[in-house]
């Protein structure tokens, strides 16, 4: 139906209700060929239900699913050239690595010589060659994840779905496997759709990002755009924003609790909220007086984060228990101590007005 030849997956008007619960509400989503799209959102937002509908494991109440322009809405999972890697990996405990990976090919009655070649090639690609005879209980979490990926990819799917595939791994291993997965995807060129609630995972892996809440996609765009310029308070806070403050128009500037602010991306509203990310804030020994976006603060606390300092700043040192502090990722070389007064600068280019879409 769609004439967008670069679109691998298109979901149009997908809705799903379980009893009285509306799990998905008129969801539209498109994924380009050869990219990684991440569906990000809190538990219960509908992201796994959407993934299951794409896979054919659930049927939508309304809407259509297209894969490479073919309407697959009513196809059973077995007819869809789509494979899924689940959170639990779902490996067969009684089969060794080779047999787990070969299972799908054997089900298709693929020639034995071709199975041996394809399984060997994919195990080499995921760096599991030499471990063909091991059973799942003899593998580490990272190795199980690689086997699950190999089993999914050996069938050369048009689309690979990944449902929280790294949630069972510890933090260090998760980062390593994320990098391996990204490199593997680039080498194969397979289209990936990843479901996660992990913001860092989404950053590391995705080309585009869809943020879901209460059964709807509330922001879609490139990963960089969504993370740097969230549309609204929910997206901002879900992505980890802490520096949100009220602002109101005052001529060409905006009045805030920190003083007058110039904003490059002018808000469409007269009163609303503005965001600035911690790494975008500049810290100086003294604030410039009489200029917008400059003000003084006191350092409530400082924590070394491995690359620099995390600073918690407050305007009123005598009453800071009532004040939400400003979080800053400091890059300056001068020594900053708790209790010290510093100059703070909010660059106009990095102030992000929320709810800043003009109404139709």
Structural key phrases:
360 residues; alpha+beta; Rossmann fold; OB fold (Dihydrolipoamide Acetyltransferase, E2P); 6-stranded mixed β-sheet; 5-stranded antiparallel β-sheet; 8 helices; 23% helix; elongated
Ordered list of secondary-structure elements with their pairings:
Blueprint: E1 7-18, E2 21-32, E3 36-40, H1 47-55, E4 62-67, E5 70-71, E6 82-85, H2 97-107, H3 112-125, H4 141-153, E7 159-163, H5 171-188, E8 191-196, H6 199-205, E9 208-213, E10 216-222, H7 223-228, H8 233-238, E11 244-250, E12 253-256, E13 259-261, E14 271-275, E15 282-284, E16 294-304, E17 309-314, E18 326-330, E19 341-345, E20 352-353
Parallel strand pairs: 3-8, 3-9, 6-7, 7-8
Antiparallel strand pairs: 1-2, 1-4, 4-5, 9-10, 11-12, 11-14, 12-13, 14-20, 15-19, 16-17, 16-19, 17-18
Structure characterization notes:
The structure is a single chain. By secondary structure, this protein is of the alpha+beta class. The protein folds into two domains: 7-237, P-loop containing nucleotide triphosphate hydrolases (Rossmann fold), CATH 3.40.50; 241-353, Beta Barrel (OB fold (Dihydrolipoamide Acetyltransferase, E2P)). 23% of the residues lie in helices and 32% in strands. It has helices spanning 47-55, 97-107, 112-125, 141-153, 171-188, 199-205, 223-228, 233-238, and strands at residues 7-18, 21-32, 36-40, 62-67, 70-71, 82-85, 159-163, 191-196, 208-213, 216-222, 244-250, 253-256, 259-261, 271-275, 282-284, 294-304, 309-314, 326-330, 341-345, 352-353. The strands form four sheets. A six-stranded mixed sheet has the order 6-7-8-3-9-10, with helices on both faces. It has a five-stranded antiparallel sheet with strand order 13-12-11-14-20, with no helix packed on it. The chain starts with 6 loop residues before the first strand and ends in a 7-residue tail after the last strand. The mean pLDDT is 90.
């Amino acid at each position: 139906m769609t004439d967008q030849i670069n679109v691998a997956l298109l979901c149009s008007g997908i809705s799903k209700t379980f009893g009285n619960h509306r799990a998905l509400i008129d969801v539209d989503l498109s994924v380009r060929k050869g990219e990684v799209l991440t569906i990000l959102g809190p538990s219960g937002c509908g992201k796994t239900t959407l993934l299951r509908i794409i896979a054919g494991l659930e049927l939508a109440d309304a809407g259509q699913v297209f894969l490479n322009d073919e309407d697959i809405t009513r196809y059973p999972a077995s007819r869809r050239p789509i494979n899924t890697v689940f959170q639990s990996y779902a490996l067969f405990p009684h089969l060794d690595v080779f047999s787990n990976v070969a299972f799908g090919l054997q089900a298709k009655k693929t020639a034995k010589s071709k199975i041996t070649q394809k399984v060997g090639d994919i195990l080499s690609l995921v760096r599991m060659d030499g471990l063909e005879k091991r059973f799942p209980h003899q593998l580490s979490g990272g190795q199980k994840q690689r086997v699950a990926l190999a089993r999914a990819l050996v069938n050369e799917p048009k689309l690979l779905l990944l449902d929280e595939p790294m949630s069972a791994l510890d933090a260090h291993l998760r980062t390593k496997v994320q990098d391996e997965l990204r490199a593997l995807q680039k080498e194969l060129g397979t289209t990936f759709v990843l479901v996660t609630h992990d913001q860092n995972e989404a950053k590391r892996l995705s080309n585009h990002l869809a943020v879901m809440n209460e059964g709807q996609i509330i922001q879609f765009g490139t990963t960089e755009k969504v993370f740097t310029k969230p549309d609204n308070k929910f997206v901002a806070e879900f992505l980890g924003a802490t520096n949100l403050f009220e602002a109101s128009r005052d001529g060409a500037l905006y009045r805030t609790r920190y003083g007058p602010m110039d904003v490059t991306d002018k808000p469409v509203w007269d009163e609303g909220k503005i965001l600035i990310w911690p790494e975008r804030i500049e810290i100086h020994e003294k604030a410039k007086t009489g200029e917008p976006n400059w003000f003084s603060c006191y350092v409530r606390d400082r924590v070394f984060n491995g690359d620099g300092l995390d600073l918690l700043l407050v305007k009123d040192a005598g009453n800071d228990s009532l004040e939400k502090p400003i979080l800053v990722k400091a890059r300056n070389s001068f020594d900053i101590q708790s209790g010290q007064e510093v100059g703070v600068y909010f660059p106009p280019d990095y102030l992000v007005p929320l709810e800043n879409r003009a109404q139709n």
